[in-house]
Specification:
This protein is α+β, with helices and mostly antiparallel strands and 147 residues long. The chain has five helices and four strands. It folds into two domains: 62 residues, no CATH class; 55 residues, no CATH class. 19% of the residues are buried. The structure holds zinc ion (2 copies).
Length: 147
């Protein structure tokens, strides 16, 4: 009996370790989402902010913004089409030219969070700085070094 019990415990331990390893791997893989490159709702082409706060989601590591919650329903009908539209727009975005955070001036990591404002990419040392930027992008955008 004792032996069976031990095997059972061992199996449980292995199961726990593999669950933890999977969770760890998922966390390691999770990067910052790719910033949304458009100034308009991907579904309605309505200017973002014109109908109140944009509705923001994340899909396959891509941030997606809508003018309203209702537009997400249309997005979900054909996400591939809309994600392709976002990808197309992202190609035209100007790369961030500096190696330091636009908000704090601290060095950037290899995988730094990014935002896009008026077709220009901005990078941050941390999500705190990103939040500050997203609140008043116009203020920080003027600090952009000339490339
Ligand atoms: Zn909408
Ligand atoms: Zn920071």
């Amino acid at each position: 009996m004792k032996r069976i019990h031990q095997i059972g415990t061992l199996a449980l331990v292995i199961a726990c370790v593999s669950v933890a390893a999977t969770a760890w791997a998922a966390e390691k893989k999770a990067k910052h989402p790719k910033p949304y490159p458009l100034e308009v709702c991907v579904v309605s082409d309505e200017k973002l902010g014109s109908m109140g706060e944009p509705f923001v989601i994340e899909r396959d590591g891509q941030q997606v913004k809508f003018c309203c919650k209702g537009c997400q329903k249309d997005f979900d009908k054909d996400p591939k089409k809309y994600l392709a539209k976002i990808e197309e727009a992202a190609k035209k975005v100007k790369k961030y030219p500096a190696k330091t955070c636009i908000v704090s001036g601290e060095p950037l990591e290899a995988d730094s969070p990014a935002s896009i404002y008026k077709g220009q990419e901005f990078k941050f040392c941390c999500t705190n700085c990103q939040r500050k930027f997203d609140r008043e992008p116009a203020k920080f955008a003027t600090k952009l070094p000339k490339s």
